[in-house]
Amino acid sequence: MRRLAFLLRPGWIALALVVVAFAYLCFTVLAPWQLGKNTKTSRENNRIAQSVSADPVPLKDELRPDHSMPEDSEWRRVTATGHYLPDQQVLARLRVVDAKPAYEALTVFQVDGGPAILVDRGYVRPEQGTSVPPVPPAPAGQVTINARLREPEQQSEKAPFLENGQYQVYSIVPLQVSTLLKTPLAGPYLQLAEGQPGGLGAIPLPQLDAGPFLSYGIQWIAFGILAPIGLGYFVFSEIRQRRAAAAAVKAVKPGTPQTTEERLADRYGRR
C-alpha cells in the first residue's frame, strides 16, 4: 500500500479528476452531440430523397388547424392556389447560393380558403458589391404554385432593418416577418420550385451528404475510452519504476531494513 501512496498526491489526484471529467464529457455531451447531428442530417436527407419522387399534395392537407406543420412534413412538395400580396415582401440578406452571395425574396401568398403563408420566391444577385438589385414583382391574380414545405430557420440575433421602403432580415422566420408586415402568417414557409409563377432564381436542394458527424461521434467515444486506459498505463509505469528502484537499492545494500528500502525507493522514484 505504501508504494501506491503516491496516487494520493495532489498532482495525481488532479490528473485523475481531469481524466474522469474528460471521459464523462465524451460520453454524455460530445459524442451524443455529434451523433445527434448525424441522426438529424440523415433524417433530413431521407425526407429530401423521398420528396423528389413523391407527388405534390395540397398545402391544406399538410397544415394543422393552427396552421403549423408536422415535423415529418419538412421538404414535402405541396401545391397551393391563391394570390400573391406583392406589397407584402421582405428580403433575406447575406444568403449564399452556389457559393455566391444572394438575396432571397420572401413574399406573402394568400391561399384561397386558407392562411397567408410566406413564400421564398428564389434569389437575386447583388449589384456593385452588396447593393440590392431590382426585384421583379410577384404576378397579380390567382395562380397555383408548386413548392416545398419548410420549417422556420433559427432566428438571427441581428435585428431586421428598413431600407428603401423594404425590410431586410437575416433569417427566414415567418413569425418575425409577420410582426414586421403586421400580417398573420402560417408557421412554416414555402420554398418555390423551379419554373413557378413568381419564381426568381431557383434555390437548389441541399446535397444529400451525411457529413462527418458520425465519424466525429465515434472519435469522441474512442477518446472517452482511451483516456482512462492512458491514465492506467501511467500508473502502471510509475509502479514499475518504483519497484525497479526498490530492487536496485536492495541489491546495493542487502542488509538494509525494509522500511529504509521503501523510503529510499520513494526518494529515487520522485527524481
UniProtKB/TrEMBL annotation:
Which Pfam families does its entry note? Answer: SURF1
- Cite the entry's keywords alphabetically: Cell membrane, Membrane, Transmembrane, Transmembrane helix
Q: Extract the ranges annotated as region (Disordered).
A: 41-74
Main location, first listed in the record: membrane
CDD domains attached here?
A: SURF1
Q: Which InterPro entries match?
A: Surf1/Shy1, Surf1/Surf4
Report TM segments.
12-33, 213-236
Q: Name one GO cellular component term.
A: plasma membrane
The keyword Membrane belongs to this UniProt entry's keyword annotation: yes
Which regions are flagged for Basic and acidic residues bias?
Answer: 58-74
Membrane-protein topology: Multi-pass membrane protein
The places in or outside the cell where this protein is found are: Cell membrane; Membrane
Annotated family: Belongs to the SURF1 family.
- Name of the protein in question: SURF1-like protein
